[in-house]
Amino acid sequence: MQTTKNKLAVNYFVVLLAAAVFYIATCAPGTLWQDSGMYQYRIWHNDIEGNLGLALSHPLYHIIGIAVKYIPLGEFAHKVNLISAVAAAFTIANLFLLLRLWLGKNAPALLAAITLALSWTIWQSASIAEVYTLYSALFFAELIMLLQYTKTKRVGFLYLLAFFNGLAIADHMWAIIPLTCYAVFLIVLLVQKQIRLRSLAVLVGLWIIGAAPYEYLIIKNIIQTGDFTATLTSAFFGKSWSGAVLNTHLSAKLIKENLMFIAYNFPTPNIIFFFAGLYGLKKISPDRGFVNVLLALLILFFAFAFRYTVPDRYTFFIPFYCLVSVLIGVGFNTLVTRSNYKILCRIVFILALLPVPTYIIAPAIAQKVHFKLSSTRNIPYRNEYKWFLQPWQTGYKGAEKFANEALDSVGNGAIIYADGTTVYALLSVQEIKDKRRDVTIVSGHGSVNNLKEYNEDLIGKLRAERPVYVVSPLAGYCPAFLLERYKFEQAGVLSKIVN
Questions:
Q1: Residues of the chain with pLDDT under 50
Q2: pTM, to two decimals
């Protein structure tokens, strides 16, 4: 028994190390765009709350980031990006461990791990500063504890399940979906007298401890605002995403895009094992409750992401992809028998590598046929097709190059109006690299939100005193009052107001 445990531990750490090397090698080395840039900027300022509503605060991720910031090795932005890479490695290792403990075999566990590791959205999230891989690592830790409880009936595993789910809540509100499923599972156990009320109280206490960073923000906001309802709305939906979260309308365009997202994450015939896994799930499950929770999570995560309407909704399929990969491993275990094991195993593992050439070829094809992405705006040093469709970011320094060139090109005391995609790259280079402190960077986005101080009532006076630039003179990326009043001329990577 001890030898088996030692061997399993060795296998786990081999998978963890391999995944870590893979993701670290493909991780972006510096300053980034969009939300990733915002996370870097918030960590630099020790900001665990942000300014987009509590649901988008992700305090656990930022607390980890702040701790990593003080490690006296490496460049700041790269260290922040590596949090995602390391968390992704734990995600893959935890998936391997889940299936190895469940099925008792290395091959299906390894296939599931490779499948998820090479899936577009997970790999993309592992290469930039993002909160998603930390969540997925914790999600698999929850499932491991649930599996171990159903196999052993030791309540200690439920205690750990509650703690991990609390941590997951502190990272991302996705965890509310598993929390609901676990609550039903625990109620059934309580009714069947498989656990005691005292154990349930311990579970609740450990969950509260795990979720403490998020609870702190909620309590702080209630005290500061005195508005309990508004704070809870912010905690569940953020400042302005309640419509997207509660959306029930499915358009043909939404359905088409979502199906394309799923297909792009699993561009391999091995997807057939997912359906085999669904078919054979009950036959090999250690417990009916475990199967019910797994299937409920699969359906709920799929339904949530499929009818979500935010621009980056493709990332919200990540928990669903995690479960798809689990079922691919289960399906492989169901279909591949000992008599055909060696030949089929080799074929299947070769097919599992198909995503890599797919991601190499897809951006060039999409660009050639002018495939419409969510954003095809021309941003200097960023090819939208490669940035979006190619998950690795090895050596990519486009955001930093853009920010350096922009700051170098403007006049003394200049004002730059930037959008949410570019503003944090500019601020990061200015503040972290201590460059061009005389330049004022203006944006209405999130953690910056200083647009009111440079609004339409003041622009005339500002223009008389200082040169004014915008990153993109386009609707949606530039204040409307600037587009209505002025014309622009190209000035390097920026556009300058000329009249």
A1: none
A2: 0.95
